[in-house]
From TrEMBL:
Protein name stated in the entry: MmcQ-like protein
Source superkingdom: Bacteria
InterPro entries: YjbR (IPR007351), YjbR-like_sf (IPR038056), YjbR/MT2646/Rv2570-like (IPR058532)
Pfam families: YjbR (PF04237)
C-alpha cells in the first residue's frame, strides 16, 4: 500500500480528520479529535514506510511475537501502540487495512455513547 492509498483509506472512515499537531512531517489521523494513526511523511519519502496504530494490549503482544514488521509503538505508549513497518511483503494491504480498522475501532469504542451512535 502506498501513502496515497493509506491516506485515502484512513480518511474514508466516518468522522476522520487529518492533522499535523506535532510537526509538518507527522501526519495524524483522528476520529473525534482522538488519534488512531500516525505516519512520518519524511520516512515514507526516504523509503522507511511505517505507521503507528493503536492496538488492544494483548493482541499487540501477539502481533509483535508473530510479525517481524510489527514493533512497540515508536515514541508512543508501548502498551497501546504498534509501529508497523511496510517495507517488506510480510504486511499485505488487506492485513494493514485490518490493523487500521482495529485501531479506529479501539478509539471509537471509548468515545461517549452519543458520539458512537452518530458515527454508526
Amino acid at each position: 500500500m502506498n501513502i496515497e492509498e493509506l491516506y485515502n483509506y484512513c480518511l474514508s472512515k466516518k468522522g476522520v480528520t487529518e492533522d499535523f499537531p506535532f510537526d509538518k512531517q507527522t501526519l495524524v489521523f483522528k476520529v473525534c479529535e482522538k488519534m488512531f494513526a500516525l505516519c512520518g511523511l519524511e520516512k515514507w519519502e526516504g523509503g522507511d514506510k511505517s505507521i503507528n496504530l493503536k492496538c488492544d494490549p494483548e493482541w499487540a503482544l501477539e502481533l509483535r511475537a508473530s510479525y517481524e514488521s510489527i514493533k512497540p509503538g515508536y515514541h508512543m505508549s508501548k502498551k497501546h501502540w504498534n509501529t508497523v513497518s511496510l517495507n517488506s511483503s510480510e504486511i499485505s494491504s488487506s492485513f494493514l487495512k485490518e490493523l487500521i480498522d482495529h485501531s479506529y475501532d479501539m478509539v471509537v469504542k471509548n468515545l461517549p455513547k452519543k458520539v458512537r451512535n452518530e458515527l454508526s
